[in-house]
Specification:
Helix content: under 10%
Order of helices and strands: EEEEEEEEEEEEEE
CATH class: Mainly Beta
Radius of gyration: 23 Å
Oligomer: single chain
Number of strands: 14
Shape: flat
Strand order of the largest sheet: 3-12-5-8
Strand content: over 45%
CATH topology: Jelly Rolls
Largest sheet: 4 strands, antiparallel
Number of domains: 1
Length: 206
């Protein structure tokens, strides 16, 4: 892939020549640019899948995004196809399955399939030391973590199918993750921000 490069670091013993003692694999991923308007997204149009073919997309989660919507659309008039969707986002100090999603779906003629997944930007912490020796902590929510989306045609599903798919990012962030309602308080204020685009919010209590 043009946006994916891999290499390795080898530790070798030369005298006597014993070959590599161990190796450290290195993978460098260059994210693909997003279209910013009307909301951050990327599209893949007119891809023809044979059995076992796959398409991988690496994108950088934009600032303020909290979920992504993956939409696949069939461009065929008669053929149907069976596909596998795999999306993963690696975060520091978390296992892979925290933000890993896998789904199998079928596309009928001229049909759509939509699947939403949670995503997370990068939360950077900066410590600023004041002249008197005190320290304050500033927290900024910025993009930075890569999201990999892979769509593959099921190997046992015969025939070629032409599809298009897109990834759209959405974001809604409340001012507090923990919301408490006391019996004596009739009203509780919640501030919600949506930096990417206008969103409709429906509040439910569980």
């Amino acid at each position: 892939m043009p946006n994916l490069c891999d290499s390795e670091i080898l530790l070798c013993v030369l005298q006597p020549l014993k070959g590599p003692v161990f190796e450290i694999p290195i993978t460098v991923v260059k994210p693909e640019p997003l279209v910013e308007l009307p909301r951050p997204h990327i599209e893949r149009l007119g891809l023809t899948f044979r059995p076992g073919d796959l398409s991988r997309t690496f994108v950088q989660v934009p600032e303020g995004a909290t979920w992504a919507v993956i939409r696949a659309r069939s461009n065929e008039q008669e053929a149907t196809g069976k596909f596998v969707l795999h999306a993963v986002q690696l975060l520091p100090k978390l296992v892979v399955r925290t933000f890993e999603h896998q789904k199998m779906f079928s596309l009928q003629e001229n049909a759509d399939y939509t699947y939403a997944i949670p995503v997370r930007g990068k939360d950077l912490i900066y410590c600023v030391r004041l002249p008197v020796g005190a320290t304050i902590t500033l927290r900024f929510f910025v993009g930075g973590f890569l999201l990999e989306v892979c769509i593959a045609k099921w190997w046992a599903n015969l025939g070629n199918v032409n599809i298009s798919y897109s990834i759209h990012f959405h974001g809604v962030s409340p001012d507090s993750k923990n919301i408490f309602l006391h019996a004596a308080d009739g009203i509780t204020r919640i501030e919600v921000t949506s930096p990417l685009h206008s969103e409709e919010v429906i509040i439910t209590f569980q």
